[in-house]
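Quick one - first record:
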Amino acid sequence: MSNNVNRNNRWVPIIIAVSVIAGIIIGTFFANRFAGNRLNIINTSSNKLNDLLHIIDDQYVDTINIANIVEQSMPKILEELDPHSTYIKAKDAQAANEDLKGSFSGIGVQFVIREDTVRVTGIIKGGPSEKVGLLAGDKIVAVDDEPYVGKIVTNEETMRRLKGEKGTEVKISVQRYGHKEPLSFTIVRGDIPLKSIDATYMINKDLGYVKIKNFGETTYAELLIALAELEVEGFKGLIIDLRGNGGGYLSAAIQMINEFLPKDRLIVYTQGRRSRREEFRSDGRGSYQNLPVIVLIDETSASASEIFSGAIQDNDRGIIVGRRSFGKGLVQQPIEFSDGSLIHLTIARYYTPSGRCIQKPYVKGQPKEYEMDLVTRYERGEFFHQDSIHQTGEAYTTSIGRTVYGGGGIMPDYFVAEDTSAITPYYTECAVKGTIAQFCFEYTDNNREQLNAFKNAAELEKHLRKQKVVDQFIRYADKKGIKRRNNMILKSQHLFEQAVYGSIIYNMLEMNDYVQYLNHDDTTLKKAIELFKAKKTKPTLDDQTRNKTPNADA
């Protein structure tokens, strides 16, 4: 009997093994049968990609760093999706988000690199460097007791050495004007605020102005402070300048537009293949629902700037002045990998209240063509003539029935052409070669003590005119090999004044002063002021012709 038991026991492992294999085969059959072809294709492709990497690693003729191949392949894979799905390496991830986070940890200086030396151009108020006595004009010559001059000095390396975890120390040595020996400072790194509002001031006794650089975590709070300051000044209307604003956080744009809309107005909605429609509406708690609003945009206003502008326009809440915006209507979600790198993956499109998606057309896998779109617009005259604008998307209607168009940015209600009449080859050469920036830095550095006496842009500009600084620049450019062209200099005189005086004002004063100086002769701002004075800040159906899409063959 025992022999029979032993004989039967020998078959048990075989029976179990056969059963497991049969189960796997049956399970695989039904999984493939009912899981759907799409999942099967994805699994097969994923395995194929992994297999390829394994084969290369195992059999390729030369030694290969597989990690490097993956790093190089990630951007190319995402390029096949759309122009805004991107890959960010681990070493760049933190810096990529700093502007929108509203702060970073460092020593609190602004700098440029000239002649292989870090030169401090500004000290952030309240920051660690101001507390220890670092000054604009100081030249950093050593970091942590190691010389830091020469070819090793780059923007990336400088930020790596000066930034760091809050509470950590860095020792720097600087060469200061009037001191023979370097001065040493030990600086404890701290949180450095990054403001997203560049300027807030009263243009005249009734009209306030706010320039917003991006939409970050602190932008809404900054806007409330700015509006409170303008309210103290008694403003009766507001210009919001979004020119050059490439966007940022959707949530910031929604919070901000909520301040200007009555209750239950649609601000924006998003929708994607795997993202259900999500609507964002005003809650009626905004403090400035009846304040006249004018929004300035241009071809570099994108994403959250277009959400803000689109909500104003489609709700007929205010007027848009300037040139057609960039045309980014895709929503990205950041997804982080274990090594700290991340992707920004497009998961949805956003739509303005009228239902339009303002994403401009693109061809998958051709990012260069997409990036050249603004050059194409310029070449066909769109920056100078409204009739040259090609906007061929579907037509939609605003709350009062005005026609607006999707598929290519926000068209302003009032178009303002770019003025290039004073640009000459001589001015272009001076600007492109960096000669203007170099001269202004050197002039500031050599005259800093004298320039410190001037506390606002008007006083400083008056002084620079007396010193005939533009003439000094022309002689400087001549020494740098840019041949003097008297007729071109005369034609571009105003541009040279604006560039030279503006750069020195930027070097010596606050961003607010710099923006005010540039705005003095700004044609788009002048148009906005004119419309406010004429009480044309509320759209009407009479404005319809300004939004009409030009003939595509014009």
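second record:
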Amino acid sequence: MKGKQTEKEYTTHGILSNLGFMFKEQWTFEKRPVFVWLFRILSDLVVSLLGIYFPKVVLDSIGKSISSSEFLFRIAGLSVVLMISQYISFFSEQSVIIGAIRILNMRFYIGKDWKTLDMDYGIAMSKEGKMKIEKAHSSINRNVYVNMASYYINLVEFLKSILGLILFSTVIVLLNPIVILVLLVTYLIDGIVSIRTQKWEIRAKEERAVVNRRLGYVLDDISNSLMAKDIKIYKMKNWINANTSKYINESRQLEQRVQRKFTSRKLMEVVLIFARNGGAYLYLIWKMFHSDMTIGDFTLYFGAITGFGQWLSQIVDRIRSLSNANYRVDDYRYLAEMKDHMRREGGAAIPNVKAPCELRFEDVSFQYEGSEHVTLNHINLTIHKGEKLAVVGNNGAGKTTLIKLACGLLEPTSGRILFNGIDIREFNRDDYYELISVSFQNVCLLPMSIAMNIGCGKSGIDNEASHYEKINNAITLSGLKEKIVSLPNGVATELVPSVVEGGINLSGGEAQKLMLARAIYKEAPLIILDEPTAALDPIAEQEMYLKYNDLTTDRTAIYISHRLSSTRFCDRIILLDHGTIAETGSHEELMKLSGKYKKLFETQSQYYINDIGGLEA
């Protein structure tokens, strides 16, 4: 049953639908290659026809003992036509078609990446989403002769082979129509076997995608410079080598099974070729001795029979290649056309972005796909307008999931989240993102100026006077001012030297301050700071605490931290434990409660000097 469902999935769009999709993509992007394809087909057909007609002209001319001038005229004329046709064929393929397809493939690649970034975060992180992303990546991440862009090449060659077959069939009909029938039957058998083999390979694609994903994960760790330190210090090399060998062996065994299938098909193809071509040639020889057929005619028919077989072989091969390309187009379209669950059009009116907001969780639960455990369990929480809320708890308590739900990146499994009394699912997803500023733990630096990193890519922001005060305020509040002043180009300094020539790297703490500046610059009514001081030294951390009220002026703020000592300046603290709100209150109230919060706080306090930052209880 599973195999049938998989096969059904792969035929969802159909070859005609994919043909329309690919033609539209090419026509929208660039029209010229479409016309070049036609010239290539015509020129190749002329070359093929001259290939069997040229010897006939030569032999018949010799047999008829025509004058040397007439002989040279005929040969020269055919030679000129042949050279022009060959040049058009070569030029159109190498200089136009392949180049255009490579560029178009880059467009597909960008489209895949954009869809991955733009689709609902929950879908992208799901098992189904990851599988579709992996398949779409595989469909374009190869040579243009075998990936989804090969659809164009194979389609052109398929059409050319069909026309070539018709052309050569016309020649063979003059000999005997029965010859065509025999050739067609044997090639039909070959084609059926080929298609069945191809379908088997496609069904193996699911297994190939799983193996490639595992192997890719290990190889990514090897090539990731950030992992190099851990790999060396913790001697992970043996583990990586063992697992790499394991996954490579799995991939090798899978490919060997595929190759065995193709070897069996090739053996049958050899037998069929011997039967059909051998029979046709024997009949042609018999005809030569029992009719008035000239040597030139014999050569023409011999070439036509050979060419007929070659055209049929090409048709079979192109059907197989076109089928493979068609499945790859399917893989790309399954991702490109995947519908978001969240609202992307229309939606409720966005509240005043300059005023603090209220965020309310009503009986919210969340469970990740494939997990047996509920990450958040019946959360009821109201974050009042202008309130500074701290969320604390051990690893795995659900803090990050709570934030992703508040940001609208994930949807509750049950319950709802209200922003100023409106269910956030009623908002347009992208409009809702405008209401939130977030400083995540993971740093996202772009290869552009510091100002543009803060302003999220707004062109010219590092030179516009209207944005200078806003940028300067964000830099000052984030604690990045001293670093900016030390740079010759100030906020116009480019980042990521591996991409931008003359760019600079920031330290971990400086990069975290930059992320904080980005969140401040956006001026959204809800600001969320997820471990904003994790990479800061104690002095920089204390300076940020002192400026916390300025950072969150006229905003509702959520502060996530593992360090309980850093949450004392918040209006209220909630302690998450195993997906539920175990305790809530101010720091003083929670300490008097003598519960889990106090125990965690006192445990952490042992590692700090009591007179730094007022950490004493």
